[in-house]
Amino acid sequence: MNTKKKKRIVSGIQPTGNLHIGNYLGAVKNWVELHETYDAFFPIVDLHAITLDFNPVELRKKTLEIAKVLVASGINPQKAPIFVQSDVKAHCELGWILNCVTARMSDLKKMTQFKDKSQKEGSDNATVGLFDYPVLMAADILLYDTELVPVGEDQFQHLELTRTLARRFNKKFGDTFKIPEYFVTKEGKRIMGLDDPIKKMSKSAKSKYNYISLMDSEDEIKKKVMKAVTDSDPTITYKEDRLAVKNLINIYKLLSNKSIKEIEEKYKNKGFKEFKQDLSGIIIDFVLPLQKRINSISDREIEKILEEGAKKATPIAERKIKEIRKKIGFLH
Ligand code: TYM
């Protein structure tokens, strides 16, 4: 009998905007693979989603939709609880404690995502929640004694802060938190915008030609891939400085499971038209069956899954918060 304890992984996703293939290839695809062998928890982070302007009806709809995407992608909620972050109250409590005893203004001022996201209104008008967002993310991770966090590269700075906060807490109050590591794949860690390969593919991009949503129609996918920018070199070769082409080959590789060498070989004497036609076919073959599976899950079914997920996550989170409350001198 194998008595070795499985490593714990935790990763969250915001119920905002359109989930795109960057989210899938950078995070969800790895979750699907890892949850088979790790002890995994996947919160849908609604508390994070309210840090920017939001619509309550839309938030509710997206929370259910994202949970359906995770199940339809192949996460078995019996093995890895999927739950709504706000259902497990200890996330907020630990967020507040970390705010007070470990996080510094100077840490948060360095966060590039805050700088990017607050740019629109000017940082003085951004909410305090948006500024404080990474501390709540640290709480999501540390509450579960997480060892591995599968995320895209855009979350590295937040994870580095999580590690710093954990170390500071441990130094002051004794060994309490595990120091988590990140998990990424080379090709998936940063899927770039199809219209601009210098910027990451993003839910909040101005142009819909930036991303391929998991909800896009066949026609939309074809149009977006055919319009994707390339460069002046007509060959299909994978080079670090060919940002646009490298990005398209990465997407091709991750969805077809072909190696980069095989892809280069296949398109040796062919042009981008053929490559893009095949790539859109590969994306369509992935997205349409996924949409079918998403649509086959009812709201009631998914609510039940989320309720059960919260029931599994709560006792683990409660045990940890109890330990923390004791360490910092709270009575109960
Ligand atoms: P979110 O909701 O913006 O994105 C979810 C996941 O998708 C990854 N991702 C990408 N990966 C590759 N290429 C891209 N273009 C791309 N865009 C997004 C993100 O890195 C992420 O892994 N702060 C987090 C949510 C969060 C969290 C957590 C994550 C809250 N608590 C605890 C891990 C652990 C976020 O906003 O992800």
List the helices and strands in order: EHEHHEHHHHEHEHHHHH
CATH superfamily of the largest domain: HUPs
Count of discrete alpha- or pi-helical segments spanning 4 or more residues: 13
Give the low-confidence spans: none
Mean pLDDT: 96
What is the third-level CATH name, the topology of the largest domain?
Rossmann fold
Main beta-sheet strand count, sense and barrel state = 3 strands, parallel
Number of domains: 2
Amount of helix: 40-55%
- As laid out across the biggest beta sheet, the strand order is 1-2-3
Give the strand content: 5-15%
The coarse overall form would be globular
| Number of DSSP E strands | 5
Distance between the termini: 39 Å
Query: Pairing-aware structural class of the strands and helices?
Result: mainly alpha
CATH architectural group of the largest domain: 3-Layer(aba) Sandwich
Q: Which ions, cofactors or small ligands are bound in this entry?
A: tryptophanyl-5'AMP
Q: Rg from C-alpha positions?
A: 21 Å
CATH class of the largest domain: Alpha Beta
